[in-house]
Design goal:
Blueprint (H helix, E strand, L loop, with lengths): L16 H20 L6 H16 L5 E2 H8 L3 H13 L3 E5 L7 E5 L1 H22 L6 H13 L4
Antiparallel strand pairs: 1-3, 2-3
Helix pairs in contact: 1-5, 2-3, 2-4, 2-5, 3-4
C-alpha cells in the first residue's frame, strides 16, 4: 500500500487554524504551568479556585455551588468535582450544607485559598501580558475573536 501523503486542503501546515491554535495553546499552557509552579497549583486548580473566589465575591452572600463554578469556568462537571475535592483536601475551599437545597453543597474559599489565588492571579496575568504582548494593540480584537468562537452555537 503506497503512502501518497496527507490529503489536506492546506498546502502548508501553518495555514491550518486548528493546528496553530493547538500549538499556541500548548505553549501558553506551558507558560502558565511555569507561572503557577511556585503556588503549587495546576492551571485547572487555579481556574476553578479563581472562579469560586470571583463568584463568592459577587454572590451577595448567596451560596455558590459546584454547578455555578463549572458554568463560570466552562468545565466538565465531573472533572470540576474531582478538582474541587483536591482543593478542599489542600485546605483551599470548604464545602458547606446548602441552605435551601439538601442535595447540593455550597462552596466557599478558605481565607488561605482566597489569599493564594489572589497572589497567583498576579503571576497568571503577568504571564498572559508577556505571552500575548506580540499582538500589541490587536490583543483586544484577538480576545473578541476568541469570545466569538467560544460563544457560538455548537448544537
Amino acid at each position: 500500500m503506497a503512502n501518497d501523503g496527507l490529503h489536506t486542503e492546506f498546502e502548508h501546515a501553518d495555514e491550518s487554524p486548528g493546528l496553530l491554535l493547538w500549538q499556541v495553546t500548548n505553549r501558553w499552557q506551558a507558560a502558565q504551568r511555569a507561572a503557577l509552579a511556585p503556588f503549587d497549583l495546576t492551571h485547572v486548580q487555579f481556574v476553578l479556585l479563581a472562579a469560586l473566589t470571583w463568584l463568592t465575591g459577587r454572590s451577595g452572600g448567596d451560596p455558590v455551588t459546584q454547578r455555578d463554578v463549572a458554568d463560570q469556568a466552562a468545565t466538565d462537571p465531573m472533572m470540576t468535582s474531582q478538582v474541587l475535592r483536591a482543593l478542599e483536601q489542600k485546605g483551599l475551599l470548604e464545602r458547606r450544607d446548602h441552605p435551601t437545597d439538601k442535595r447540593a453543597k455550597s462552596l466557599i474559599p478558605t481565607e488561605s485559598g482566597a489569599a493564594l489565588v489572589n497572589r497567583a492571579i498576579v503571576a497568571v496575568e503577568a504571564c498572559d501580558r508577556d505571552f500575548f504582548s506580540p499582538l500589541g494593540e490587536r490583543t483586544g480584537r484577538f480576545t473578541a475573536a476568541l469570545r466569538q468562537l467560544r460563544d457560538r452555537d455548537h448544537g
